Amino acid sequence: MINLKPLNKGTTNSMKSNRRKNTHPELIIREALRDAGYRGYRLQWKVPGRPDISYPGKKTAIFVNGCFWHRCPKCNLKLPVHNSEFWSEKFRKNIERDNRNYTTLKELGWKVIIIWECEINEDLSGCVRKITDEINTPHHI
Asked: b/e string for 61-90 if b means 16 or more Cβ within 10 A?
């Protein structure tokens, strides 16, 4: 069993200030989808993983993942130096939970789209195209 040190007060306050919904990257994607004419999405739809953005009628779930918390494979960010055992375990659990939710949604017949924070910063129009292409493609279970 890993013996984890308690987090210091500054780290605890920082983690509490992180939002679960309505993050800056989510707001950017939602605005871009509206501008492209793709309204009618739902937020935090009550399916496994509570996707950030959903089109329930199209059975499409969109997760807007922060590179730090969800461990973007492209960014390959380093672990925090302090309390690295805690962070390693935390990130491992985040990734496992994400993958479990994606798999469950796919088994339920949903399309799953993952948009990374870095992708939004690099190519917002490409992210919108990725989403709209999936929405407009017929889905076969």
From this structure: bbbbbbbebbbbeeeeeeeeeebeebeeeb
**Structurally, how many domains does the chain consist of?**
1
Domain interval for residue 122: 21-136
User: Following CA atoms 125, 129, 130, 133 in sequence, which dihedral angle do they give, to the nearest 10 degrees?
Assistant: 180
User: For residue 16, is it within any domain?
Assistant: no
Q: Looking only at Cα atoms, what is the longest distance across the chain?
A: 51
pLDDT in tens, 74-96: 998 998 989 999 999 999 999 99
Is 71 part of any domain?
yes
Q: Is residue 108 part of a domain?
A: yes
The two structure tokens encoding residue 51? 């996707």
- Two structure tokens written together for 79: 């672990």
CA distance 55 to 90: 30
Q: CATH code at 66?
A: 3.40.960.10
Residue type, 48: P
pTM of the model: 0.83
